[in-house]
Design a protein that fits this description.
The structure holds two protein chains of two kinds.
Chain A (H helix, E strand, L loop, with lengths): L1 H17 L12 E12 L4 E9 L1 H5 L9 E8 L2 H7 L7 E3 L5 E4 L1 H6 L2 H9 L8 E5 L5 H6 L8 H15 L8 H9 L6 E9 L1 H4 L3 H4 L5 E12 L2 E5 L2 H10 L6 E6 L5 E17 L7 E17 L6 H28 L7 H8 L1 H7 L3 H4 L4 E6 L2 E4 L15
Parallel strand pairs in A: 1-4, 1-5, 5-6, 6-7, 12-13, 12-14
Antiparallel strand pairs in A: 1-2, 2-3, 7-8, 8-9, 10-11, 11-12
Helix pairs in contact in A: 5-8, 11-12, 13-14
Chain B lengths: L7 H18 L10 H25 L5 H9 L1 H33 L7 H18 L1 H28 L17 H16 L5 H4 L6 H30 L1 H6 L3 H7 L2 E2 L3 E2 L2 H31 L3 H18 L4 H14 L1 H33 L10
Antiparallel strand pairs in B: 1-2
The chains are: A alpha/beta, B mainly alpha.
Chain lengths: 404, 382
């Protein structure tokens, strides 16, 4: 019995020694929380220049603030991301903690040289989540500048930018959330690549990084979401225009809301629509395996928002005419996106997946020649729009006044 | 053996948690690609068949540990040897699962720089403590933890569905590569992992208090787990796509990490880590217990005396098993279709055949007896 008691004491003693806390816990006041990462290329050293936007906790919480900027950018260079991160330890007094990274900005020139090497780190690391948002800084802009911008609404720029993407994809639908795993899946698409949202700084780049940016009603510089960047494999091939971006979003079935503008025939004026919701379906016809036909079906539901015309919206026939005009307009937008992707020879729209889903056997044959087939692929469009409502009025008051 | 009794419900929860254990955690590759959920379901059906063999043996020898009927069927020496090798097999598999669990905790939770030994030590100590209290305590714990696991599972499922990250198109085309990869995956992996591993249930069965309902609970546990595991694998692939799933060390963890409901509900991985640790805990416990029972019955040593020595063996073995996680997984996937089937498929099948022969022989004998003694009205031996 005595022996047992000794043994129990020994075990308990061991437990006590171990139960004092997590083995490698790092308290919050020893961490520098990174909200965003900017990745640039340093030509002089031929290394990556990584900028960490870190949250200055004292300024965010308010009480202990010294009136400094809410975020601060630390930079270091390295051949790899992890090397750069370790190099920052000479500059930052705390452990760089990537667990809350919400945004990763890649500069245009890094993207043109290829992002494959970067993404292995982002995929593998256990701190960075796959939910981090990816952005490409527009032509001639550097990621470090984007990360350094201070925004008036939302203290932390990286999180504010992520929210901007969310908002614009719901309101304008020329962008959609692109996260780490979306990019990886995109790079793995045969003959295709990811599409990533762009970001540019409007206004002064230097002014946007100063605290004075927050102090004037009209900011010196703002970080703004821009059009989509088209990749082939891991390399940036080109940028889309506004319309091409919208068409891409539409084909990828991420359309939520977007304004459409129709000019009526015979100088009858203009009507502005709002797409309320839309459904896209893509089918592949593989009668001739060498010449697949892709069919895109789009069914948008619209609402009339502005009528600068005297047309009578109570008449179902008018509605029909409007719907047909909308169909034409949507087809035009979709075509632009498809043409752009063909011109850049990158299957960003995922047609290869459609073929694979329809007939896996045919896809296995096509696979090796997809690069050649893709630019010549035949695409057919079928848009069937429905005007659901015209908000609070039917005709415009223009129907009843006769100026001239 | 001592008189312990576990109820069918407890048996069910033990088996469910046992099967969830490492299967939810460990990624042994996706041989079947997008169709791994189909492979899982086929594996489940095979698992039911294997379980029926064990159940059949149990129905003939209720209240007897497998080591006892090995000796009855195979003779004193061969039977004893088989029983002993089962003990070693259980012990080894227990330490493999300790490594699985330890690596999971290190990779997922905050214990990135903690030595594996410490994590494993805590796990083994916990298991040893519970087993010291007896299998009944373990069974009751299982019931409570099953509820915890189901609540967490349901919650995570809801979060994932509402986060809008599930894209079922990633599961298409179904069977695009034909049935070949599926069958290969079933044979190499899905039968064994986790369904054939239910051979440990043979050690638990003698402790059942209701035999028929207990067996039914066993079948139900396999069905339930098969469906849950297939569903989990389908959801993981439809969220991450095959490529990322295949390359992930812990796919489930990565998948749940993707769920984010308007920056309000996010980082629910920690709940999944809980489920995984609970599962691994029960997997280790059952293997550990099976090893204890086999050897204690063979050598007539009370099993409580063996608990601490075995803890040391499991811990030590877990440290020398492999140098790295990839080596551990590589060995593990080979172990699955080389060593494991010997214990889970071949030996039970041989035993079933032996029993059949014995029954046939006895029946023939009794027939010839009843022919020679036509007056006796006694019921036949069968």
């Amino acid at each position: 019995m005595l022996k047992h008691r000794w043994f129990a004491f020994l075990v308990l003693g061991c437990c006590l020694a171990m139960m004092t806390g997590c083995w490698d816990a790092v308290e919050l006041n020893r961490r520098a929380i990174v909200s965003g990462i900017g990745i640039d290329w340093m030509e002089s050293k031929s290394q990556y220049l990584i900028s960490f936007q870190t949250v200055v906790a004292d300024e965010i919480s308010g009480k202990a603030g010294r009136g400094a900027t809410p975020t601060s950018v630390y930079q270091a260079s390295g051949k790899t991301v992890i090397e750069a991160m370790r190099n920052t330890s000479r500059k930052v007094p705390r452990i760089i903690s990537l667990a809350h990274t919400g945004l990763i900005v890649i500069s245009d020139d890094v993207a043109r040289n290829g992002i494959v090497d970067l993404f292995d780190y982002l995929d593998r690391d256990s701190d960075i989540r796959l939910t981090a948002e990816i952005l490409v800084a527009g032509k001639g802009q550097r990621a470090e500048e984007v990360v350094a911008v201070l925004t008036p609404i939302g203290k932390i720029t990286a999180f504010a930018l992520a929210q901007k993407i969310d908002l614009t994809s719901r309101q304008l639908s020329e962008n959609f959330r692109v996260e780490v795993d979306d990019v990886i899946r995109g790079m793995l698409t045969p003959g295709g690549g990811p599409i990533i949202n762009g970001v540019i700084i409007e206004g002064s780049k230097e002014g946007a990084a100063k605290k004075s940016n927050l102090e004037s009603a009209k900011s010196d510089g703002l970080a703004v979401i821009s059009n989509l960047a088209v990749f082939k494999g891991g390399k940036l091939k080109g940028w889309m225009t506004k319309e091409e971006s919208r068409g891409t979003v539409w084909i990828r079935d991420k359309m939520q809301k977007t304004p459409l503008h129709i000019k009526l025939e015979n100088g009858q004026g203009e009507v502005a629509f709002d797409v309320m919701r839309s459904k896209t379906r893509i089918e592949a016809e593989l009668q001739d395996p060498l010449q697949p036909i892709i069919r895109i079906f789009v069914e948008p539901n619209l609402s009339i928002r502005e009528v600068n015309s005297s047309i009578d919206l109570r008449d179902p026939h008018t509605m029909k005419i409007l719907e047909e005009a909308v169909n034409k307009e949507v087809v035009r937008i979709l075509k632009k996106a498809v043409e752009k992707s063909k011109r850049l020879d990158s299957d960003i729209l995922g047609f290869s997946h459609v073929i694979e889903r329809t007939k896996p056997a045919v896809w296995r044959e096509l696979k090796d020649r997809w690069d050649v087939i893709y630019p010549r692929i035949q695409v057919e469009y079928q848009v069937n729009s429905v005007v659901r409502n015209s908000q609070m009025r039917d005709r415009s008051f223009k129907h009843d006044i006769h100026i001239e | 053996m001592e008189k312990v009794r576990i109820s069918p419900l407890q048996f069910f929860s033990l088996l469910v948690l046992f099967q969830f254990g490492t299967t939810l955690v460990v990624n042994l590759g996706l041989q079947a690609g997008k169709d791994s959920w189909i492979a899982m379901l086929i594996g489940m059906i095979m698992g039911l068949l294997l379980f029926s063999m064990n159940a059949f043996l149990y129905s003939l020898f209720p209240d007897k540990l497998p080591t006892v009927y090995y000796r009855i069927l195979l003779g004193k020496y061969l039977g004893g040897f088989v029983g002993l090798s089962y003990g070693v097999f259980y012990l080894h598999t227990a330490s493999r699962d300790v490594v699985d669990g330890g690596l999971l905790v290190m990779a997922s939770a905050a214990l990135k720089e903690t030595p594996l030994l410490i994590v494993n030590l805590i796990m083994v100590m916990t298991v040893a403590y519970v087993l010291g209290k007896g299998i009944e305590v373990l069974a009751r714990t299982a019931l409570i933890f099953l509820a915890v696991v189901l609540i967490i599972g349901g919650f995570s499922l809801l979060v994932i569905l509402f986060a809008g990250i599930v894209d079922l198109q990633r599961l298409l085309p179904v069977m695009g590569e034909g049935t070949g990869p599926i069958l290969k995956s079933v044979v190499e992996k899905n039968i064994h992992f986790p369904f054939a591993e239910l051979i440990v249930a043979t050690v638990l069965m003698p402790a059942l208090n209701q035999k028929k309902t207990g067996i039914k609970a066993g079948y139900l546990a396999i069905l339930f787990c098969g469906v849950m595991l297939a569903q989990t694998s389908a959801i993981t692939i439809s969220v991450l796509g095959t490529n990322i799933t295949e390359r992930s060390v812990f796919p489930l963890l990565t998948m749940v990490g993707k769920a984010n409901i308007s920056e309000f509900i996010e980082r629910t991985e920690i709940l999944v880590v809980m489920v995984l640790i609970i599962g691994v805990f029960f997997k280790i416990s059952l293997y550990y217990y099976a090893a204890l029972m086999c050897t204690s019955e063979l050598f007539k040593i009370p099993y409580k005396k063996l608990i601490y020595p075995y803890a040391v063996i499991i811990l030590g073995n877990s440290m020398v098993l492999s140098r790295s996680y990839s080596e551990h997984l590589m060995k593990g996937s080979k172990y699955l279709y080389t060593v494991l089937p010997v214990f889970t498929i071949v030996i039970p099948a041989v035993l079933v055949i032996l029993v059949m022969i014995r029954i046939l022989v006895r029946r023939m004998k009794s027939k010839s007896k009843s022919r020679s003694e036509p007056n006796s009205n006694s019921s036949p031996a069968s």
